[in-house]
């Protein structure tokens, strides 16, 4: 805070220092003009010689120098006075022009404007009084994340190095104001100004295009704000390893992530489908052809994306043909040298006999062209298309590939699931390790319960803040099982379309998809999936005493005290009669 | 180490000294007697004091800040004195009478004190630098 105050002062002093010379010249020219005017002889009304006093001279020079010009007061000037006034005019006009010119030049100075902008930004961040996320890089991913954070009602602060992207922040409509600055996020003092050490900083998200900048952000976050979790994008393995070496909590490599996903799809298709359904794709139990086949594959391109997939497919022992114009020296797969967009090259790679194709070049147009050509040659192909730019999504939607991979979306989804539902990550890892039959069973059970549409994924902690009534109920020593709670608060004979995916006890014990008879305890963290609208019903049951009593016991508790007393009397009467 | 003489410091010292001497020149004399206090000297003291202030602008050191502050005080006092003079000689019915003169001179006396402080700072700064 002290440092930022000093920065502000340095801007102020810079302006003063630059204005020093013009102001001195202005004062000097005014002083000479006034002094001269008091010395030059004039003629009074009555023809007597008379000189102007300082008061009149200053008055005259003031309105002449500023080009207001009221004329010759208090008397008509003598020729000598007029001669001096000519000098005065040129002297003072030059003085004023120089001063104003310097001031305007100074205010339009790029560096100075940047310094002012930085200062305004730092002040806006300093005055934030609610938790916020520091988002470094406002590219496609940053935009997705900022929009999602905004919708979740969380604040964000943006640092972006590119001015045109910065300007877009104002164009995108956000509910809350997003303080943003155009600066290099790799510099620790910028991160500091952006609130890295602010007590309300809830996390740092490093999403810049440059791996080394992301690395610098990770290091700064680790050293300057140890308690603040950092989510960092890293596309090169060595950078990711470097980040991991000093304990960066979440490293997101979009290409590796997709490689893992593909590996999962090939190994345990049901686990893949389950996670895919939970993260936003409609599941349909009637179509089974959306699972990548274990067969012959053609991989177009040999960049970071394709290389990751090839490793995964090698592990699964699939037959691969790679199409790329420049193969490496050591070839360990079947290579077709050429441009994958051409029909001839695709035929040489055996597109007619292949089961799947991966359009994985770093050009969206090439990928679109590959898919269209390949599908004409073999309509039954399973297509995985890489979409590099989010802006091309309309084209890829029409293309309707079996799987479209958008790196920016992969990163954004991962970040958001970490931020909004921290339990989703351990859940995902547990599902990955689970067996195929178990996953198939859960997928079937959950989609029957919740429906085939994308479920709402959310987390809740059983404490006084989030589940007041339930916490009190548990504190009284009464037992609540998961199955008892997940009933509709309007009619308790029907179950809520809601399921607990993951349960984490306060003592660290974790249960994957706990059974209905699992007892709940205070301090439990739950990850839930629910159909649209069921979330608010369950939240009501957990927070409201009466609703909870009804859901758990079936007893209708009357609302007010009077009704409660009457209710109590009626209950005792009923007991007497029995 | 002996600091090299540079023009900037000469100009700076010159204006500070000149502001103090002009101010003193205006101040000395019978406090109520307008004949002892020349308005040209007041004008010169005001202008030189303002230039001295401007010369101090933008100095970020602690001593520079004190310099600027005392100088601003001197400016303010002299400006007030000039305004009283303007009022006395052009607006008030009594003209430049002893009472008004006393006011003007006492205001400039305050400015003189600030100017003396400025000079003391200048000298002490120089002595400290020589060490």
Automatic annotation (TrEMBL), chain A:
GO annotations of cellular component type: plasma membrane
Membrane topology: Multi-pass membrane protein
Keyword Cell membrane: no
Regions crossing the membrane: 21-40, 52-71, 83-107
Biological process annotations from GO: monoatomic ion transmembrane transport; potassium ion transport
Keywords for the protein's UniProt record, in alphabetical order: Ion channel, Ion transport, Membrane, Transmembrane, Transmembrane helix, Transport
Gene3D superfamilies assigned to the protein according to its UniProt record, in alphabetical order: 1.10.287.70, NAD(P)-binding Rossmann-like Domain (3.40.50.720)
Residue ranges of domain RCK N-terminal in the record: 130-252, 294-405
PROSITE patterns linked to this entry: RCK_N (PS51201)
Domain of life: Bacteria
InterPro entries assigned: K_chnl_dom (IPR013099), NAD(P)-bd_dom_sf (IPR036291), RCK_N (IPR003148), Trk_Ktr_HKT_K-transport (IPR050721)
Compartment(s) of residence: Cell membrane
Record PANTHER family: POTASSIUM CHANNEL PROTEIN 2-RELATED-RELATED
Protein name: Potassium channel protein
